[in-house]
Design a protein that fits this description.
Helix content is about 80%, strand content about 0%. It is mainly α and about 55 residues long.
Length: about 55
């Protein structure tokens, strides 16, 4: 507990507020990251190496 309080004091109020907002909406934000990464992987695999694009 002491370590977490020390990190929060060193981070300052703005970074702490940002971290709290992230923790509150973590499931939504992580879902967006996973969806975007999946789209990027499929784009790289199927459209980037396609001879029709070149």
């Amino acid at each position: 507990m002491f370590l977490m309080q020390t990190i929060r004091i060193m981070a300052g109020p703005y970074l702490c507020q940002l971290m709290d907002n992230y923790y509150a909406n973590q499931d939504i934000l992580n879902s967006i990251v996973v969806i975007c990464a999946t789209i990027w992987i499929f784009y790289q695999r199927y459209f980037k190496n396609s001879p029709a694009v070149k």
